[in-house]
Amino acid sequence: MKLIIKLLLTAVAVVVLAKILPGVTVAGYGSAIIVAIVIALLRLIVKPILVILTLPITIITFGFFLLIINAIIILMAAYFVDSFAVSSIWWALLFSLLLSLFQAVLFSLIKED
């Protein structure tokens, strides 16, 4: 149940960010739910592989390259979901930072059992 709530909160954050950021568009609420699911799957499957493959550059940049990996995950989600578009990697970087911030705030509202 908590997973569904987190996905719905992420979808709400995606819609809000798409309204705020001019470089990000999403077709509607149904598309935002699909985007939330795709981002969750990409973070679960692809992100660990990218982190391991780019570990040397991540160490050299003191972890800042992880921000680029998050932006790449957002661009991959835009590639897989036709109704979600991000115009550049810079918008993806800003979107991923703000999405993480919104998720931290929204997820803190969920009570832990």
Automatic annotation (TrEMBL):
Keywords: Membrane, Transmembrane, Transmembrane helix
Transmembrane segments: 28-46, 53-77, 89-110
Annotated InterPro entries: Phage_holin_4_2 (IPR007165)
Lineage top rank: taxon: Bacteria
Coiled coil location: none
Family annotation (Pfam families): Phage_holin_4_2
The name this protein goes by in its record: Phage holin family protein
